Amino acid sequence: MLAAETERLTRVGRETPMGELVRRFWIPFLQVADLSEPDGAPVRVTLLGEKLVAFRDSGGRIGLIDRLCAHRCADLFFGRNEENGLRCTYHGWKYDVEGKCVDMPTEDAASTFKDRIRLTSYPVQERAGVLWTYMGPRAQTPELPEFEWMRVPEDHRFTSWSFQENNFVQGIDGGIDTVHSVYLHSTLDSHRDLNAWQEQGKSQGDARQVHRVRSNPPKLFATDTDFGLMIGGKYRGKEGTDYWRCNLFFLPFYTMPPGQPWRKIAHAFVPLDDENTARWCFSWTLERPFTAKEMAEMRAGSGINVQLVPGTHYPVRNMANDYLIDREEQKTLTFTGIKGIGEQDFSVQEGMGRIADRAREHLGSSDVGIIAMRKRLLKAAADLQEGVVPSAASHGSLYHVRAGEVVLPSDAKWDQDERMRQVMTAKW
Amino acid sequence: MLAAETERLTRVGRETPMGELVRRFWIPFLQVADLSEPDGAPVRVTLLGEKLVAFRDSGGRIGLIDRLCAHRCADLFFGRNEENGLRCTYHGWKYDVEGKCVDMPTEDAASTFKDRIRLTSYPVQERAGVLWTYMGPRAQTPELPEFEWMRVPEDHRFTSWSFQENNFVQGIDGGIDTVHSVYLHSTLDSHRDLNAWQEQGKSQGDARQVHRVRSNPPKLFATDTDFGLMIGGKYRGKEGTDYWRCNLFFLPFYTMPPGQPWRKIAHAFVPLDDENTARWCFSWTLERPFTAKEMAEMRAGSGINVQLVPGTHYPVRNMANDYLIDREEQKTLTFTGIKGIGEQDFSVQEGMGRIADRAREHLGSSDVGIIAMRKRLLKAAADLQEGVVPSAASHGSLYHVRAGEVVLPSDAKWDQDERMRQVMTAKW
Amino acid sequence: MLAAETERLTRVGRETPMGELVRRFWIPFLQVADLSEPDGAPVRVTLLGEKLVAFRDSGGRIGLIDRLCAHRCADLFFGRNEENGLRCTYHGWKYDVEGKCVDMPTEDAASTFKDRIRLTSYPVQERAGVLWTYMGPRAQTPELPEFEWMRVPEDHRFTSWSFQENNFVQGIDGGIDTVHSVYLHSTLDSHRDLNAWQEQGKSQGDARQVHRVRSNPPKLFATDTDFGLMIGGKYRGKEGTDYWRCNLFFLPFYTMPPGQPWRKIAHAFVPLDDENTARWCFSWTLERPFTAKEMAEMRAGSGINVQLVPGTHYPVRNMANDYLIDREEQKTLTFTGIKGIGEQDFSVQEGMGRIADRAREHLGSSDVGIIAMRKRLLKAAADLQEGVVPSAASHGSLYHVRAGEVVLPSDAKWDQDERMRQVMTAKW
Fold first, then answer.
1. Backbone phi, then psi, for A254, in 5-degree steps?
2. How far is C244 from chain A (nearest CA, A)?
3. How far apart are CA A252 and CA C183, in angstroms?
4. A89–B344 CB contact, under 8 Å
């Protein structure tokens, strides 16, 4: 990939092609739990390179506004969150959740100066335990995506996020990558030869086990959709059949792997700036609530979640401490010696550097999905420059699909087959 | 303010307009206590972007010279301070307090090489517990300012300084800001409505209380003086009268608020480089010495002083730890939840970033003083480029004034009134 | 020295003149002990600005290859070192010690894609407890230097290295500097006046003591050799004689001082990048093995070695902690108050800044060797640009010399005298 293309793909500042594209969608920026208390402490938020501060006012409404006061640039993070507004500690200018200056006690009561003062502010919605904002033109406000995890009962859902120290596209690259699981996330006694596996009776009657062995690498296919991309991995199955895994990429930064029949997962890789990302994890169950034990384990970092320094969104195992890699464990038990699926992902995604030099890559047949996703993003950004807003932005219902897996006859068209379509239909 | 103006206002390197202006004045750079012992440890000093080292020689004289040895650039901070000179540890070259190389043992005794070696050095004066230096042209050496705090007996005076992580003008902006105290430095039960306050009898007979309530914001005026600027805050007083507070700005970086009748205060904001400042605090009493308890409290950070990491000039409560803000205290007791007047100032001044982007400001009627001060500085810098040295530099007696407060008839001319003049007259 | 010359002298990236010169020689990059275990943990190596990873494969062979996987840039430091290759944890691509991709499980078995994938790799030799690599054109692979310390029995030798936070030429500057020892590395009661010293009988019958007093500074001479440079320090000796100390500089980054009759020392200053160096210390005995006590003391940082944070190559006493300078000790016992010869060297070499500004230097008669060394390096780099490879690169035997000291008649030609030649002859 040429340097100029990497540049277009990864930069998210205002007036960059990709930055403008992302600004056309609702963006998750905090969990409700991060900002739950009316008149509680403001929270620093950086999104797409813009420094903002979020606060919940007395009435429970949420403001996401410029971090610096319009008067003399004092940091509103230190502001007083009081009586339906955030008041600057320097001279008492006060802003409501829309960024309007609603009190300016340094001026005469008769002054109209305050009416001309308005901080940049972005609209906020609370949905499914998440705070969403929209940073694009108001006249073209999009719809929230209608992800299945946003509709299940609250006790069917678990959400977390953490800071990730690299550009967001590296996260997406990994999130739609069908193949890496049997390496990065594997143990040493898994993924052995398919025949041996079957002889042991492990996959008897379970066609999906064929993707669990490394000796059966998939062929990859990608199909553009309105929401983004279907990425199909075709694994050799029983005679005359193929086992298909379908990963999804949703504009502008969501990924969804097939997950398990009873528990689904998805990610968002939200660009905080060019070199930092918020990695979101969404887990949800289809048939029963999560148990208290499952919830507690996810809070502690199990599954796709990472272990966080308590009270923060910073990972305990990170680049600075080599993810606490245990070389003995790497020799004897797991492929990486690093604990945690999320942390394993970080070790490769952050390990590439803040913005990976894609000119060094050598993409192969397993990278069909990655190539297609990058093209999709670049195309959408180029289209927007021509004035064409992605339809996904204004059609939340497009997001109401699941990733999935299915066994199909060898002559089936995977991306049009009714069986695949059924598997992909979200129920909630 | 245009970016180019901010640039001129804030940059202090050699050959910048503001850097040259500041170089025309004596500059406080250490306390005597920081460098008290003859032949004691040298101290790193950075001033106006220049890296220097200070040492006190065997005879008690103080040198302030280039930090790197003229020979092969070894760091003289590690030097041996011995027998009237600082000796480089690398090859033994030795410098006196004037930067002259007085011993060069690596050369033949007959060599005259050493006579040609002289490090940049700046003259130093000790006065009032402070070490002062002058970094401008020797032929035009200015006078020391004759501040009142420099003339009171030693036990009437307390001085401290700390590192501040922003450009010096942000410090001055705050130092002359009459209005911010009733916000930034207030408690929640102070500054209530003036009528209620008076009904409680709190300000009965005390005209100055009118500035203590937020509902009575002042009108601001600024008048150029030879030393800098008088900034008058006019508060509505009893019928037919105004209560005036007069803050002073002294070229090139001093500020003085009215203080209290028995205890006065002043600041210097000394530019260490473009992005770092030494914030100096001068407190002095007029009628009696500070008590031991008062001294101990100021050493611990009370008043305008900040709490320092012992043995250093680094604040305990700083940007990296959010000034240990206590959000519960902010809700229930104080306006900021941050302990310490100095630390409260830092939270707004450092919070703006190293060099505040003044293009984002919206200055109002309460910023008359700030606007005038910036103009005064820029004008003085421009004049100097035309060859005009500020008269304040060569007339230390101009600094022999106090900030003050006075009640005047409504038709009085505040800045020419005899009563104001009297209040402003320094006694010591 | 002009800025442009400093630039040529110090920059070591690919295609810089100096970078290309250093690439024509074998380079020590790790101790064998740093990478001793087959299939053990890979080690990050940075050399000449190139980010590499070293690993020892199952057969004991050592690979030094690009740090990032050719596929999608994952960091091979986290790789699995298994069955004769380093396997990327992301998708299982596996590399042998020559950087060849030997397994690419993500592709079809029939694919020839993997045959086209080869990471940059550099050949490695193990010799004398050190791992050496060569980063230049393969067709002109040089010979290993045949230093005496590489040939003595293992128990006659001690090697260590540490990170040094400055450009490598500052290290060489110090390594060949005859004069600085009587300052930087001295105690206060050493190096007194020569007459007093002799009167005390300390140097009776020991001609070499004359260089131990500061009042007898040497005259310096430098002579180009095939391996680099002889730097002679001539000290006034008994009537009609001179005492000569001869320091050696070997292309491209080795230095050797005279040492002691029974114990010799040498350094390599290996450029990790423009601003970081690995400082190597080689100590060896000529007549008997080091004792266990001597070995233990050197491991703890005695002699030219530095005290390392256990399990790392980072110095305990470093710039960030002012080398734990003890000002009382500097006043009363040692010239610097810093413990350790290596740490004393660091305090001056790192103290100059990452790349010393040589435009500020004032070189004198004691700097003849430094001047000659810089010229030698710049000349060799310029010659290489004309296609002339230094003969030292292809003649390892040129390195089979010792630094030394000798008393010569005043009319002797020091650099051609048979007595000097004999002293310089390596025995092992």
1. -100, 150
2. 51
3. 65
4. yes
Closest C-chain CA to B82? C331
ipTM of the complex: 0.94
Q: In what order do the strands lie in the sheet with A124-127?
A: A26-31, A130-134, A124-127
C interface residues, A as partner, C-beta within 8 Å: 39-41, 68, 70-75, 77-78, 80, 88-92, 104-108, 111, 113, 116-117
Evaluate whether B101 touches B93 at the Cβ level (below 8 Å).
yes
d(CA C183, CA C161): 24
Which pLDDT tens digits describe chain B residue by residue (428 residues)? 889 999 999 999 999 999 999 999 999 999 999 999 999 999 999 999 999 999 999 999 999 999 999 999 999 999 999 999 999 999 999 999 999 999 999 998 889 999 999 999 999 999 999 999 999 999 999 999 999 999 999 999 999 999 999 999 999 999 999 899 999 999 887 665 555 555 555 555 566 777 877 888 899 999 999 999 999 999 988 889 999 999 999 999 999 999 988 899 999 999 999 999 999 999 999 999 999 999 999 999 999 999 999 999 999 999 999 999 999 999 999 999 999 999 999 999 999 999 999 999 999 999 999 999 999 999 999 999 999 999 999 999 999 999 999 999 999 999 999 999 999 999 88
Q: Which of B13, B21, B95 minimizes the C-alpha distance to B378? A: B21
Tell me which residue in B70, B73, B78 faces C356 most closely, judged by beta carbons. B73
Check: CB of residue A425 under 8 Å from CB of residue A402. Answer: yes
Sequence letter at residue A183: Y
Q: Using an 8 Å Cβ cutoff, are A143 and A396 in contact?
A: yes
CB contact under 8 A, B364 and A39: no
CA separation for the pair C70, C247 (Å, rounded): 45
Cβ A106–B179 below 8 Å, yes or no?
Answer: yes
Count the neighbouring beta carbons within 10 Å of the beta carbon of residue A105.
20
Q: What's the rounded Cα separation, in Å, for the pair A163 and A318? A: 10
Q: What does the DSSP 8-state code read for residue B15?
A: T
CA dist., res. B191 & res. B189, Å (int): 7
User: How close does chain B come to A236, measured CA to CA in Å?
Assistant: 56
Exposure string for B385-404, b = 16+ CB within 10 A, e = fewer: eeeebbebbebbebbbbbbb
Helix (H) or strand (E) holding A385: helix A368-385
**Residues B113, C363: C-beta atoms closer than 8 Å:** no
Q: Do C325 and B78 touch (CB under 8 A)?
A: yes
Q: How many CB pairs under 8 A join A and B?
A: 90
| B-to-C residue pairs, Cβ atoms closer than 8 angstroms | 91
- Per the CB < 8 A criterion, the answer to whether C98 and C76 are in contact is no
- Per-position DSSP letters for A30-59, written without gaps between them: EEGGGG-STT---EEEEETTEEEEEEE-TT
DSSP A187-250: BTTSS--HHHHHHTTTTTT-GGGGGGSTTSPPEEEEEE-SSEEEEEEEEE-STTEEEEEEEEEE
Instruction: List b or e across A244-274, with b for residues whose CB sees 16 or more CB atoms inside 10 angstroms.
Output: bbbbbbbbbbbbbbbbeeebbbbbbbbbbbb
Question: What does chain A come to in residues?
Answer: 428
Structure tokens at A360: 């060094």
A77 interaction partners in chain B (CB closer than 8 Å): 322, 351
pLDDT digits (tens, 9 = 90+) for A61-75: 999 999 999 999 999
Question: In whole angstroms, what is the distance from residue B136 CA to residue B147 CA?
Answer: 21
Alpha helices in C254-358 (DSSP H): 292-299, 327-332, 341-349
Classify C223 as helix, strand or coil: strand
Query: How far apart are the CA of A180 and the nearest CA of chain C, in angstroms?
Result: 5
Report the alpha-carbon angle C9-C13-C15, nearest 5: 90
